[in-house]
Amino acid sequence: MIYHRSVEDRSACAIIAFVDKRGRSSHAAIVHTIDALRKMGHRSGDINGEGDGCGICTDIPREIWSRRLAVNQMSPYLAESRSFFVGHILLPADIKSEAVHILARLRELFGSQDAGLLVENSGSTRNEELGPRARIDAPLFWQVGGLIGTHDKQLATRQLYDLQLEIEQEFPRVHVGSLSLDSVVFKLQGVPDLLPRVFPELMDENFRSVMALGHSRYSTNTLPTIERTQPFSLLGHNGEINTIERLRFTGRALGIEPVPEGSDSQDLNRIIEGLINSHELDFLEAFEMVFPAIYSEVAYYPRDLQDVYTLYRWFFPSSAQGPAAVVGRFGNTCLGSVDALGLRPLWFGESDYSYFLSSEKGVVDLEHTMHDPRPLGPGEKVAIYGGRGIQAEVLDYGGIQKRLVKLLGGRTRTKRYFSSFYRGLPRFTPGARSYRLTRFYRPSGRIFSRVAAKHIRLCQGDGGSCDQPGH
Questions:
Q1: Percent helix, strand, coil in the chain (nearest 5)?
Q2: Strand order through the sheet with 175-180
Q3: N or C: which end of the chain has fewer CB within 10 A?
Q4: How far apart are CA 270 and CA 161, in angstroms?
Q5: CA 68, CA 413: separation in Å to the nearest integer?
Q6: What is the pLDDT of residue 19?
Q7: Between residues 192 and 436, which one has the greater pLDDT?
Q8: Is pLDDT at 423 greater than 60 in this prediction?
Q9: Residues 152-158: what's their mean pLDDT?
Q10: Is a pLDDT exceeding 60 seen at residue 142?
């Protein structure tokens, strides 16, 4: 039987990620990412000839921001500070008339999180390059650079996350494209060719990056809007999350509220953000918790790895199911993942200068590849550790799982009371103050405390006996 591939078979989002193998920051990373999205243009959708949306996530272009600081009579070296952050915030067209009031209030919110703004930039986009529909809907693009009032990177990242939540709560229509110590996101409604034309700084040769992620959207169950254009702060996603309502429910139970009117991909991104920032999980842990190993295979894993997945399922019982290929980036880590059935393609390859993850293998010319790119298998993940001046390290799925075991091993309080996770929580006296018990589940900071407290409250309602299976 001869199978003829149809255009519809190829209609799906395009995702791409490049990581320089030697940690060299270059403009080529931006050029190659946009070129790869262009080559996969057949995968994205359009309405009346206008693309459903595309975007690119890069390192903070510190040379560009150094120049902006110097123009404003500030030290250009501030852009190299560990506390320097950049935010890309979009005000949709229907609220641009209120921009003066909204931006004034946003400045106050930044100040409330000890995030002092040094430089602002708005109105630098060339919206005339957009198509008619996208031009009408074009948002106000507000860029800010500043210093957060701590040198503790984990704490600073959490403060920026909390600030993002405050902005969403007060202004649900305002879209925070990115707000980070490491990365920035540019996005638009249109095709990849428009990215450097609408955002001229992407053509500046001083705009350099070690890592770059790209996404071009094929809109399926939601209409194309700038807010739903990817990549988001952490990831770009090809496919659908069929279990999104259950994921949202579990996220809410952990204090992670969905994005106002968010799509499945936006809320998936939010849940992973929340696990990292509100519960102090490592990026790999958060990703593996939401996209766990195939449950039927876990029984054949070594005991220490079984413990990892049993704990993950206890803490976060839902999982992201459905056809999905994902590329994500947090800090110096880039990650690629394929759903348990392998229903969306993702290829891993190596060129002369970069490692790459892509929806299609042909985005890098064969003459520049070290070997034939390989497809990730069902449920498989690949992680690439990199960064400026850092020799990139690739972890296959086995290497990722070893890292997960090591991370759990470092959570001494969790390990000490580990058996209680399966048999229920330890017995305690009725009426005893529950906060003492929740401390046992805190390896550091807030992780597991909310879930432990929830189980404790359930046990208190049963008269205080917490050693029953299933609690």
A1: 40, 20, 40
A2: 115-122, 140-148, 84-91, 175-180
A3: N
A4: 10
A5: 47
A6: 97
A7: 192
A8: no
A9: 96
A10: yes
DSSP letter (8 states) at residue 286: H
Band of pLDDT at residue 240, cut at 50, 70 and 90: confident
Contacting residues for 250 by C-beta, under 8 A, at least 6 apart: 271, 316, 317, 318
Q: How far is it between the farthest Cα atoms of the chain?
A: 71
Locate tokens 């936006």: which residue? 266
In the three-class reduction of DSSP (H, G, I as helix; E, B as strand; rest coil), residue 434 is classed as coil
Q: Which residue has the higher pLDDT, 429 or 170?
A: 170
Chain centroid to CA 384: 15
What pTM did the predictor assign? 0.86
Strands (E), 219-314: 235-239
How does pLDDT run across 277-321, given as a tens digit for each residue? 999 999 999 999 999 998 888 989 999 999 999 889 888 988 999
Tokens of 100: 């003066």
CA distances, 133 to each of 124, 127, 194, 224 (Å): 20, 11, 14, 11
CB 119 within 8 A of CB 144: yes
Alpha-carbon torsion (260, 264, 270, 271), positive or negative: positive
* pLDDT classification of 220: cutoffs 50, 70, 90: low
What strands lie across the sheet with 324-330, from one edge to the other? 235-239, 324-330, 333-338, 381-385, 393-395
In one-letter notation, the amino acid at residue 142 is W
Give the mean model confidence (pLDDT) for residues 412-430.
Answer: 55
pLDDT for 437 equals 31
Name residue, tokens 């139970």.
253
Give the residues across from 183 on adjacent strands. Answer: 59
The CA R_g of the chain, rounded to the nearest whole Å, is 23
Q: Is the pLDDT of residue 468 over 70?
A: no
Place of tokens 């990365």: 183
Are 268 and 237 in contact by the 8 Å Cβ rule? The answer is yes
Nearest CA to 117 among 130, 132, 106, 129?
106
329 strand-pairing partners: 334
Nearest of 400, 444, 440 to residue 419 by alpha carbon: 440
How far apart (Å, rounded) are the C-alpha atoms in residues 411 and 198? 46
Report pLDDT digits (tens) over 5-30: 333 444 478 999 999 999 999 999 99
Secondary structure letter of residue 426 according to DSSP? P
Sign, CA dihedral 327-226-159-261, equals negative
What residues are paired with 319 via a beta bridge? none
> CA nearest 125: which of 160, 93, 172?
93
**For the segment 243-256, what is each residue's pLDDT rounded down to a tens digit?**
999 999 999 999 99
Q: Which of 177, 264, 179, 274 is nearest to 227 (CA)?
A: 177
Collect all residues with Cβ–Cβ distance below 8 Å to 177 and sequence separation of at least 6: 88, 89, 90, 185, 186, 187, 233
The answer, yes or no, to whether the previous bond of 231 is cis (omega within 30 of 0) is: yes
